Amino acid sequence: MKSCDSKSCASCASKDKKNKDEVIQCKLMRIKHKLIVMSGKGGVGKSSVATYLSLALAQKGYQVGLMDVDLHGPSIPKMFGLHGLLNITPEHEIIPHEYRPNLKVVSIESMLEDTDSAVIWRGPLKHGVIQQFIADCKWDDLDFLVVDCPPGTGDEPLSVAKLIPEAQAIIVTTPQEVALADVRKSINFCRKVNIEMAGLVENMSGLFCPHCNEFIPIFRTGGGRRTSELMNIPFLGSIPFDPAVVEGGDRGRPVIEDEVETPFKKAVFEFADAVLKRLKDAPKVAVAEDKTVH
Description:
Binds and transfers iron-sulfur (Fe-S) clusters to target apoproteins. Can hydrolyze ATP. By secondary structure, the chain is α/β, with parallel strands linked by helices. The chain has a single domain, classed as Rossmann fold (3-Layer(aba) Sandwich), CATH 3.40.50.300. The chain has helices spanning 6-14, 20-28, 46-59, 76-80, 123-135, 155-163, 177-192, 223-231, 243-251, 263-278; strands at residues 31-39, 64-68, 87-88, 94-95, 97-100, 103-107, 142-148, 168-173, 196-208, 215-216, 235-241. Strands 1, 2, 5, 6, 7, 8, 9, 10 and 11 form a nine-stranded mixed sheet that branches. A two-stranded antiparallel sheet has the order 3-4. A hairpin with a 2-residue loop joins β5 (97-100) and β6 (103-107). α3 (46-59) packs across α10 (263-278) and α5 (123-135) packs across α6 (155-163). It is globular, with a radius of gyration of 18 Å. The N and C termini lie far apart (38 Å).
């Protein structure tokens, strides 16, 4: 099928008689690589990994979209300091928030009048919203679409697997055994639903002391690499814990926007490079690397 251009894509999205699956296919054909960020359990920093991977790719000059399908606990807009409801085009397409010219963000939080409201939905409603995030959003041409899924192997990852079958999963874990036991379930989930895995990343692998720079293995270390070897999937790297990441998330300013080089920032870009190496036919950078501070 020939890829849609911007005008025709908006046109087909606005036709009620157009099959929703065809609209989704039209939109996805304009996105070169789709990445699903998953975790077996909560509290491993999955949304932080999705946020910083998206931003690192954008800083390298790629066109990036970040889709937050954690419908019950969305946190992506806050981490980027994005506020307000999403706007709609005359063709009834949803306009994503634009954090920078080459980084677009969509989240259920940006569709709620009251961001403190509890989203109490069952599977079919969740599936419909994720469909809408793909079919009705004005993503245009992207090098990468990063999808932040909620923890576990429930409705949302199942919907993403069905709607974006060519997506590749990035599994997030922390080094301790309780997290590794759950991440093995995520790996087996991907295999059962035929999601290709780009690899596994170990988050919060330790802390570099801000005073002496000595490495402190808070939750032990190396468990992610051992699990990737045991489960026969690629290991994408280790990202250390950095208290500034928590502060940056609360302030809505990701810390890799700062000029200061830190072990965390270095690890994030090494992780992004490892992801790029894993992808077949990784797109070349279309625009100059943007170091503009938001």
